[in-house]
C-alpha cells in the first residue's frame, strides 16, 4: 500500500529545496541538526568502532539522493532511516552476518517480573525517591549514570536503537518502525525489554550501590 505523503512545514520545504539546489549552507544546517542523532543511532546499531564511518557514508548517500526525497516523511526521519540502513549494512558486513532481529536476544535482567510494569514498559509501582543533597549523593548519581551507560552499551542492537529513538530522541512509533524496518508490535517489545533491563539495574543500584 502506498504511504500518503506527509506535508512538511514551509520552512522545511524551503530547506529541502535549498538542499536539492546544492546550497552548502543548507547542508551545514542539516549537519548541525542531525549529526548527533545520526552518531547515536550508528553507535546503537553497529558500535563505536564503525559509527563515524557509517555516518560519513550516510551523509554521502544523503547528498547523492536528496533530489529523490519525496517528502513522504519528515526530513529527520528520512535522514535517520538512511543512517540506520547504512549501520545495519555495515553490521552485516563486519560482524556476524545476521539481521537485527536475530541479534535481539535475552539480556541479563530480562527475566524481571513483568507484573511490575504496564504494557507500555512503564513501572506500575513507584520507585524510591532520591534526594540529592550532598557531594556524596551527587557522586552516587554519576555512578548510577555510568551503570546505565554500561547497560545500554551491552543491550542487543535492536533494543538499544529502539530505546534511544523512543525514550531519548522522542520519535514516534511509526517513525521507529520505518527506521528499524520492524513491526509496531516488535518495536514495543524491543522498548519493553530495554526498559526492564534498565529498571533492574536502577533497582539493584538503589539496593546495593553497585551495578
Number of H- or I-type helical stretches: 9
Shape designation: elongated
Question: What's the pLDDT, averaged over the residues?
Answer: 76
| Structure class | mainly alpha
CATH class of the largest domain: Mainly Alpha
Terminal residue distance: 47 Å
Note the run of SSEs as H and E. HHHHHHHHH
The number of domains:
2
C-alpha Rg (nearest Å): 19 Å
Binned, the helix content reads 55-70%
Poorly predicted runs: 1-6, 105-117, 127-135
- Which fold does the CATH topology of the largest domain refer to? Arc Repressor Mutant, subunit A
* Name of the CATH homologous superfamily of the largest domain: Winged helix-like DNA-binding domain superfamily/Winged helix DNA-binding domain
CATH architecture term of the largest domain:
Orthogonal Bundle
Strand content: under 5%
Profile the largest sheet. Answer: none
Total number of β-strand segments?
0
Protein topology:
Layout: H1 10-20, H2 24-46, H3 48-65, H4 75-94, H5 100-103, H6 135-154, H7 157-168, H8 173-180, H9 184-208
Helix pairs in contact: 2-3, 2-4, 2-7, 3-4, 4-8, 6-9, 7-9
Structure explained in plain terms:
The chain is an all-alpha fold and 211 residues long. The chain folds into 2 domains: 10-94, Rna Polymerase Sigma Factor, Chain: A, CATH 1.10.1740.10; 100-208, Winged helix-like DNA-binding domain superfamily/Winged helix DNA-binding domain (Arc Repressor Mutant, subunit A, Orthogonal Bundle). It has helices at 10-20, 24-46, 48-65, 75-94, 100-103, 135-154, 157-168, 173-180, 184-208. α2 (24-46) crosses α7. The longest helix is centred in the C-terminal third of the chain and has 25 residues, at 184-208. The chain is elongated and about 60 Å long. The model is unreliable at 1-6, 105-117 and 127-135 (pLDDT under 50).
Amino acid at each position: 500500500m502506498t504511504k500518503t505523503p506527509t506535508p512538511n512545514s514551509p520552512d522545511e520545504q524551503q530547506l529541502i529545496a535549498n538542499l536539492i539546489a546544492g546550497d552548502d549552507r543548507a547542508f551545514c544546517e542539516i549537519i548541525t541538526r542531525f549529526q548527533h542523532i545520526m552518531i547515536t543511532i550508528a553507535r546503537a546499531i553497529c558500535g563505536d568502532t564503525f559509527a563515524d564511518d557509517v555516518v560519513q557514508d550516510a551523509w554521502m548517500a544523503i547528498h547523492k539522493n536528496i533530489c529523490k526525497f519525496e517528502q513522504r516523511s519528515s526530513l529527520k526521519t528520512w535522514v535517520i532511516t538512511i543512517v540506520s540502513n547504512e549501520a545495519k549494512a555495515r553490521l552485516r558486513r563486519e560482524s556476524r552476518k545476521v539481521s537485527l532481529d536475530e541479534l535481539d536476544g535475552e539480556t541479563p535482567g530480562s527475566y524481571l517480573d513483568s507484573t511490575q510494569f504496564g504494557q507500555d514498559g512503564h513501572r506500575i509501582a513507584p520507585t524510591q525517591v532520591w534526594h540529592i543533597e550532598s557531594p556524596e549523593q551527587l557522586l552516587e548519581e554519576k555512578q548510577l549514570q555510568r551503570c546505565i551507560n554500561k547497560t545500554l552499551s551491552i543491550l542487543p542492537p535492536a533494543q538499544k536503537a529502539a530505546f534511544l529513538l523512543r525514550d531519548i530522541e522522542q520519535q514516534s512509533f511509526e517513525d521507529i518502525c520505518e527506521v528499524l524496518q520492524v513491526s509496531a508490535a516488535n518495536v514495543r517489545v524491543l522498548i519493553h525489554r530495554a526498559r526492564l533491563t534498565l529498571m533492574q539495574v536502577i533497582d539493584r543500584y538503589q539496593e546495593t550501590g553497585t551495578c
